[in-house]
């Protein structure tokens, strides 16, 4: 539907443009088409056939310290993260960093908590790939318990073994 509206608007516009502006207008169409193609590629990145949160088999660290209810709540809160970090935690290379086996995240849990709360402002390096700043949204609206749950879930999913986050840790990083 969007492409039909786009095509009708462009074709109407070109019917009203004089021939001497044809090359200039073709250049603009190529730019717009390139942007649309980029949006489609980013939106359709990767194999999404079975990428739903229910279909991904999480490799959760089995430990008596991590409660299943915290992991379940973390999975629910993580639904807000799916668009960027994907259901499998692998992100989108060069755009949204992976959480699965992330050297950046696992190296500093306090930094991970601060990133969830405040987002990112500066570029970061994750597993040898640079990611632009301002891509992580602030999640200041989440309660301390929500941040505990999602951080613990991420730190212990997809092969990560990063431990448990507590409400005291979250409060200290607000």
Largest sheet: 2 strands, antiparallel
Strand order of the largest sheet: 1-2
Number of helices: 8
Order of helices and strands: HHHHHHEEHH
Quote the average pLDDT. 77
Quaternary organisation: single chain
Taking the alpha carbons of the first and last residues, their distance comes to 44 Å
Shape: elongated
CATH topology of the largest domain: Cytochrome Bc1 Complex, Chain D, domain 2
Radius of gyration: 21 Å
Written account of the structure:
- The protein has 174 residues and is mainly alpha-helical.
- It folds into two domains: 2-43; 68-173, Cytochrome c-like domain (Cytochrome Bc1 Complex, Chain D, domain 2).
- The protein contains eight helices and two strands; from the N terminus they run ααααααββαα.
- The chain has helices at residues 2-15, 22-43, 68-78, 82-85, 103-107, 109-118, 144-155, 167-173; strands at 124-126, 129-131.
- The chain has a two-stranded antiparallel ribbon with strand order 1-2.
- Helix 3 packs across helix 7 and helix 7 crosses helix 8.
- 21% of the residues are buried.
Which terms summarize this structure?
about 170 residues, mainly alpha, Cytochrome Bc1 Complex, Chain D, domain 2, 2 domains, two-stranded antiparallel ribbon, 8 helices, 2 strands, about 5% strand
Blueprint (SSEs and pairs):
Blueprint: H1 2-15, H2 22-43, H3 68-78, H4 82-85, H5 103-107, H6 109-118, E1 124-126, E2 129-131, H7 144-155, H8 167-173
Antiparallel strand pairs: 1-2
Helix pairs in contact: 3-7, 7-8
